[in-house]
Structures are given as structure tokens and as C-alpha cells.
Specification:
Elements (H helix, E strand, L loop, with lengths): L1 H10 L2 H14 L2 E12 L14 E11 L2 E11 L6 E9 L5 E6 L1 H11 L1 H4 L4 H15 L3 E4 L1 H7 L5 H17 L2 H13 L3 E5 L10 E7 L1 H11 L3 H9 L20 E6 L5 E9 L3 E11 L13 E2 L4 H21 L1
Helix pairs in contact: 2-8, 3-5, 5-11, 7-10
């Protein structure tokens, strides 16, 4: 009886609960995530406007995945100097073969709102022509699905190098392996050996939480060890081997100093399932807040490619014109100095 009590007591310690919840989530090949992340400036500004205002960015996200195959929808709302918000809507679907599908809604309105807010600066040359080109591209892009296929891009630009094509196929295959059951088990085992989250129970109340709240703190020394040992695994080395053994770089705890000691809350139920992540804080010049809900997805869920998608290469000429205009601006500014 004493032994059983000690085992149960050990398993219910915050460190053990968080370890089990994190590793369980890592091992799940399929997830669903939804929530918001917000960031706002702490002080008002009058830049680009005669009126005082505070800037903020809000991201609303819904996403799901099954291995490498995933889909997401997002709404980005930006508050700034303008009289109205800038709203940007985005959808994406990624297939197992590495082909990405993207759709942008309200993009033309987004660009027009920005242009109107900075009218005094952008209505005159040399900016007016560039803004006009961007508006034309935005109108063409919005509300349509676009297919981003690396092989198609190679073909459009006349790249006929078998070596590059084989490298791409190799990377895609290796990425699928990283997202497979064995690949995720490698990540989970590595986390067990390098637990970079310390934990304790928290009394803070979060409206979205349905389980118990645990405060997790980042240990950058262990996080660096986690990353460095992970990139040394055979699964990650296979990715490096695809691109002429260009290995991933190790990191040091010093390079992670900005997140050292950062804390956030984890919502964990009685079965040690991670149900949510919440964070907030005030930095030197801004305030940040995030509330994300997490759950395991169906093992047979798939995200299919839109049948009416257009190749992104159809936009090549428009993008090249904008790139040339931007290059011309840099040249003009350098000449004026």
C-alpha cells in the first residue's frame, strides 16, 4: 500500500504530469489547434498620423494536421494609424508530397487600406507606381486557391537539374519520416531526456481552461541540449544528407537568452491530456497574450487539395515587375545619398 501511494504521488507531481502531457501530445500524429494571439504596443504614437494611436496585431487561428498533411485558416487584424482596421484572411493546405495550396481573402482591401492610411507618402512617385502594381497583384490573387509546387516552379524558370529535383524529393520524403510515428517518438524520447519545461501547479484562472492549470517555465540550457541532441538523430541527419550534408546548426543557451525563464500556463485534464496553452506578459514596449486550445485529431482525417487551384507560376510576371520596381527604388535612394 505504501509503495502504491508513493508511485501515485510521484506520478501526480507537476513535473510528471507535464512530462506525460507533453510527450503524449508530441506522439500524436494528428492534432487540432484553435485560438488567438494578440500583441499591442504599450505607448501611443503619432507616427504617420497627426493623431495619437496605439498599434495592435491579433491573429485568430484554426489548424489541423495528420503527419505532414495539414490545413489552417487564419484572420490577421492590424490596428494602426488608419481610421479602420486592416484585415487579412488566409487559408493553406499542405500535401504529403510537399505541394502547398494557399488562398487569400480581402487582400485587395488590405492593401488599399494600408495605401489610404499612408496616402501622403505613397501617392507620389516613385512609390505610386509600385503601389499600383501591388494593388493589381492583390486583386488577381485574392479569393482564389494557388498551388505552390516546387517542381512546377523549377519548370517555369527552366531549371532542369536532376540533382536539385532529387534533393527536393529527398527532403519531402525525410520530412514525412520526421512526422511519422517513429519520428515523433524520437522527439518525445529526446524531450524525456532533456525536459526543458519545469512545472508547478497554478491557481490562476483562465476562462478557456477545462482541466488543471500548470505553470511551465523554459530552461534554456535544457532547451539547447534538446535541440542539439535532436539534430544529431538519424532522422534529422537524413534531411541534412538530402542537401549535401548541410547539417543543422547547434544552438547555445546564450542565444536563447530572450526566452530564458519565460512562463506560460498549460491546461491538462485528469487523463494527462494537454488541452490548452495560455500566455500573457508585458515587455518593454508591448503586451502579448495568447490562448490556444489543443486536442488530438482523428487518425484518419485528411486535408485534400483544392481542385480549382491555379499554379503560382501564373503570377511570375507580376511579381517580377514588382521586384524590378523595388530594385529601382533602392538604386534611386543609393544614388541620392
Amino acid at each position: 500500500a505504501v509503495a502504491a501511494f508513493l508511485i501515485i504521488n510521484c506520478q501526480n507531481k507537476p513535473e510528471s504530469v507535464v512530462l506525460d502531457a507533453v510527450t503524449k501530445t508530441i506522439k500524436q500524429q494528428s492534432h487540432k489547434i484553435a485560438g488567438t494571439v494578440e500583441m499591442a504596443t504599450n505607448t501611443a504614437s503619432t507616427m504617420y498620423s497627426g493623431n495619437s494611436y496605439k498599434s495592435s496585431i491579433r491573429l485568430e487561428l484554426e489548424a489541423g494536421n495528420n503527419g505532414l498533411n495539414n490545413a489552417a485558416s487564419a484572420v490577421l487584424t492590424v490596428k494602426g494609424a488608419g481610421p479602420s482596421d486592416y484585415v487579412f484572411r488566409f487559408n493553406e493546405v499542405l500535401q504529403d508530397n510537399g505541394t502547398l495550396y494557399i488562398r487569400v481573402a480581402d487582400f485587395a482591401d488590405f492593401i488599399n487600406s494600408i495605401a489610404a492610411s499612408f496616402k501622403a507618402y505613397l501617392d507620389t512617385e516613385p512609390f505610386a507606381s509600385l503601389v499600383s502594381q501591388i494593388k493589381t497583384l492583390a486583386t488577381k490573387i485574392e479569393d482564389s486557391w494557388w498551388r505552390v509546387s516546387v517542381p512546377e516552379i523549377f519548370e517555369a524558370f527552366g531549371v532542369k537539374d536532376d540533382k536539385i529535383s532529387k534533393q527536393y524529393d529527398c527532403v519531402v520524403a525525410a520530412a514525412n519520416k520526421l512526422a511519422s510515428e517513429s519520428g515523433l517518438n524520437t522527439v518525445a524520447d529526446n524531450y524525456k531526456n532533456n525536459q526543458f519545461l519545469s512545472a508547478k501547479k497554478s491557481d490562476r484562472k483562465v476562462d478557456s481552461f477545462t482541466g488543471s492549470a500548470y505553470e511551465a517555465t523554459i530552461d534554456t540550457n535544457k532547451l539547447a541540449k534538446f535541440w542539439n541532441s535532436y539534430i544529431a538523430t538519424n532522422e534529422v541527419k537524413e534531411v541534412s544528407a538530402c542537401v549535401a550534408d548541410r547539417s543543422f546548426e547547434e544552438i547555445s543557451a546564450d542565444s536563447l537568452s530572450k526566452i530564458s525563464g519565460e512562463t506560460f500556463l498549460l491546461d491538462i485534464d485528469n487523463d494527462k491530456n494537454l488541452k490548452g496553452i495560455y500566455f500573457d506578459g508585458v515587455k518593454d514596449s508591448y503586451t502579448i497574450k495568447g490562448d490556444l486550445r489543443v486536442e488530438e485529431g482523428s487518425k484518419d482525417q485528411t486535408f485534400t487539395a483544392p481542385a480549382d487551384a491555379k499554379p503560382i507560376t501564373d503570377l511570375t510576371s507580376d511579381v517580377m515587375k514588382i521586384a524590378q520596381s523595388i530594385a529601382g527604388l533602392f538604386t534611386a535612394f543609393q544614388s541620392a545619398e
